[in-house]
Amino acid sequence: MQRRRWLLQLVFRALAHRKGRTALLLAVLAMASSLATALGIVSYSMEKRVAEEVRKYGANLIVTPESARLDVGSGGLNFGVVSEPAYLQQRQMEDALAKSGLKAERSFHLRGVLHGKDADLMVEGVNFADIRRLFPWWQLKGAWPAAGEMVVGSDLATRLKLKTGDVMELAGKAQTVKLRIAGIVSSGGEEDGLLFMALPELQQALGLDGQLTLVRLMVTAGDDRLKKSAAALQQLLPSAKVNEVRQTARTSEGLLAKVKLLMFMVTAVVLVSAGSSVAGTMSTTVLERGKEIGLMKAMGGTRWEVMLLFCGEAAMLGILGGGAGYLFGSAIAQFITRTVFSASAEFLPLFAGVSLGVSLFLALLGSVGPMIAVFRLDPVRSLRGE
């Protein structure tokens, strides 16, 4: 126990005696670990920010049924292809998503035709809670519907002179429903010409219980995650088509890949520079302390004990530099995310370990050469000043 205390005292006194050199090493280690910490936090925050922004583009995976196709012709004449209506099984879709382990926002859709206002109207059955999460850009005048209510697209409302509060009677193949218009939606897309009602109500009206025509999924994209997710889901749904919305996928994957590559390159350059600086400074320290090392060996200190002393100094510098680097790096990350991305970086204790790890790695790696020199040092020659 006393031997350990003696070694610790030697370490602290050695660092305190060379204040200038110690301060320089701490500054280098803190700079390297702080930059690694800052870039790591910024990269993590950026990935979450990009994922949030990409959500505004809507779903990036679309699941549709394989249409039943029938070639029409006679003899050598081909009149084209007739596609019969095809549907996805809602239960099968839910089971496939559960088995795949895919973490994604989802929206189930059923599109069909109901008769109302002396005309056939295109109606889409949805879960409005899912719609609000997956399509945040929808502009709604009025309120989101409750049971027995629906939403009308702005173009259709203008054409049929509909307004909130009106009640419509819609006839389907299986039954007729009366629904009150709770709101009018505007999205700038095809939704403006549709009626939207609760999915179970439309399934009952059309006599298509448990049937879907479309499933939209929002998967957090990154690297090849989207492509792998589509392939995994396709294997579980052989009777369906799983398609990527490539514009959204390329935007998210490309931006994230470039950001990560930039972070890696900058971090690598800084770590190499810091490691070289630590190695040079530690080598100079060993040369200056040659007589001190020779004296410790002459007094009975073994080569391993002397090396342990220098290793302890490096480890102490690494711990102090890593702690300072984490605090400084967190402040840098907060500044970058606020000024560049108009967001706030999260407080991530995980990166405290990253900062300490980087600092300790650089301190010990930079001390390998000097410690080998210490191990080989001849105490007689060092005391003579040779």
Automatic annotation (TrEMBL):
Sorted alphabetically, which InterPro entries does this protein's record hold?
Answer: ABC3_permease_C, MacB_PCD, Macrolide_Exporter_MacB
Q: Where in the cell is it found?
A: Cell membrane
Membrane-crossing residues? 261-287, 307-328, 348-375
What range(s) does the MacB-like periplasmic core domain occupy? 22-231
Specify the ABC3 transporter permease C-terminal domain's residue ranges: 265-379
Give the primary localization class: membrane
* Official protein name in the record: ABC transporter permease
How is this protein positioned relative to the membrane?
Answer: Multi-pass membrane protein
**Assigned protein family:** Belongs to the ABC-4 integral membrane protein family.
Provide this UniProt record's keywords sorted from A to Z: Cell membrane, Membrane, Transmembrane, Transmembrane helix
Any keyword Membrane? yes
